[in-house]
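Lay summary. Proteins are chains of building blocks that fold into shapes, and those shapes determine what they do. In this project we predict the shape from the chain. Here is one chain we studied, written as its sequence of building blocks.
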Amino acid sequence: MKSTRYIVVVLIRFILLFSINLQTTNESRFLFDSSKTDVMSFERSDHILQKQIPNAIAFTSDIKHHPLFKKAQQATPDRYKYAVDKGAYFVPTDDGRSFYIVWTPKNFQRMQIRPMLITLHGHASWAFDEFFIWHPYAEKRGIGIIALQWWFGTGEKTQDYYSPENMYIIFNSALQQLQIKPSHVLLHGFSRGSANTYALTSIDRIKNRFIVLTISNAGGMARDFPPNNDIITGKFGSTPFRDTHWVMYCAERDPNPDRDGCRAMQTSRELVMKHGGKVELFIKDPIGDHGGFHRNPSNVNRALDVFEQLIR
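And here is the predicted shape, written in a compact code that computers can read:
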């Protein structure tokens, strides 16, 4: 009798896993189970099912062979391990060029309000860095995380990074799979990532309006960056930032004041407001340097307080 029950249980589990695989389409992403085994155990499968990620998509370990993923893993081994330990998933982009990290708090799919943070690293950096510095705050407040590896691992030219248009395609698909509602996303960018937040926010405004708050962290709205120039010259209309909300950070000791420091961010604030945006909080750090936003927890918590007020 006991052996019969065991066989039935095993068959039910096999049917559940097989039905998930049948739901996979060509447009689906493949999530990598962060355990190091190539074959998922039943215990690991149960853990994944409990995450309740929509369209729970076919799981594969192929991404661990992706050259950019391996490079990021080798460059930041401790932070990669941190992401694994915290239960993050690693998702290859549809174009095969990169990947992003997804983490959601416990019972995320049962929450009426599902806030999500999208974060962009700085120049020549790694998504694991962003996940590492944001996760403690997100976990405490019940906010999910998407951290995109938008640098391709070599070079510093524009083509060595995703464009805002291509990033938005990735984010739009991920947010829809996670069933995130409009006006429930916090977009953050640091340094070069911040310089791309302006175009991303304007694109989102005319498309799905997922973003309710943008944190531009030490990276100005440079006029010589083509997407920003499109905004300034009116390609997106006279008020491309209408109904958008912003937190901006600058440090007085930033080594590049006209690009990332307070002169740059003050100009960016004026441009955002001129084009219809509302700067809810402008943090001018008298003792900070580049990267100072996360070195002072008060900065992060003040910004997250603004986000929580906007999604209530």
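What the prediction tells us: The longest strand covers residues 278-285.
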